[in-house]
Structures are given as structure tokens and as C-alpha cells.
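Problem 12. The chain below contains 195 residues. Write out its predicted structure in C-alpha cell notation.
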Amino acid sequence: MPTFSETVIELWNGWEIRALLLLSLSLQVVLIVFGSLRKHSASICIRFLVWSAYMSADLVATIALGILARNLGADFGEKNSNPLQLFWMPFLILHRGGPDTIIAYSLEDNELWLRHFLGLLVQTGVALYVFVKSWGDTHLKLIAIPVFIAGIIKYGERTWVLTTSSTKSIRNSLLSDPDPGPEYPQVTTMKNNTD
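Solution.
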């Protein structure tokens, strides 16, 4: 007879990826609903809810991608027992792109664009690994391919927005070389002649 802890571990192993996917989806919904309210609300509850969802959303999606990769690595050489893994992976990449209501929680987050770019490369590689390893005779691949492409575009868009919103990028776009205009040499020579 299995012990209570063995039963809980077996239950968790069977449902861990589903629980993480639901948690990731829930965090995305919180960010979509409350992300734009944080600017207009003085409520500490809304700010804490958005901050904790923002900080947790990327972590949960990353952990879920890692679990998908680990599960596929354990089944190396065997036929994939769960064809839904091919379908879940693109949604996790889409979740990494985040909602449009909140790209960065604060201005300082824009400076971390290089970290997001590295995450884009690594996690797209992991997702591609899961995608290729999960490839089978399922019809879900016809749905998974466009979602995977949209997820990569969305994640790339988030990284690009953080890059263009960084202090250095904004400073470079605002402070261009002065352009005195086409008449400047004529005006300066006329002024020098009058002096």
C-alpha cells in the first residue's frame, strides 16, 4: 500500500505541467485585467497583485518549459505518450511574450532588455527542442505551428520594446546632431561681412 507522500508525489507528477499551465494562464489574465490599472490606482492591493503577477509570470512559464523538456528527455527513444505537450509549448512561449497592457513594471525594467534577449534565445531553443521531440502523428501540430510562430514574434516584440524603451535608446533618439539648415553658411558669412 502506497504511503500518503508517495500518492501526493504521484499525483503531482501527473498534474504538474497542467497546474503550471493554469497558473501561467491565470497570471496572464491578472496582468491583462489589472496591468493598466496600476498607473491610475492608488490601491496598494492592486499594485501588489500586479507586481507579484509580473514577477511570477516569466518564472512559471520558464519552469513549465523546463518540465516539458525534462519529461521529453526522460522518454528518449520512446514514443511520446502525451501529444498535448506539442500543443502546450507554443502557449508557454506566447505567455513569455506577456500581455500588451504591461511590458515593464517600472522604467528600470527597460534596462534589462539584454536579459530578455538572452531569455528569448535560450527559451526559444528549449521550445524548439520540445517541439521537435514532440513531433508525432498528431493533428495538433497544424495548430501548434502558427501559435509557436506567433509566440516567438510576441516574445521578440517584448524584447524589442524593452530595447527601444531603454534610457540609452531614448537619449539617442532625442539628442541628434543639430541641423542648422541649408542657409547657415550664407548667414554666417553675411554676419562676418557686416562685422
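Discussion. Residues 4-34 form the longest helix (31 residues). Students who got a different answer should revisit the alignment rule from Section 12.3.
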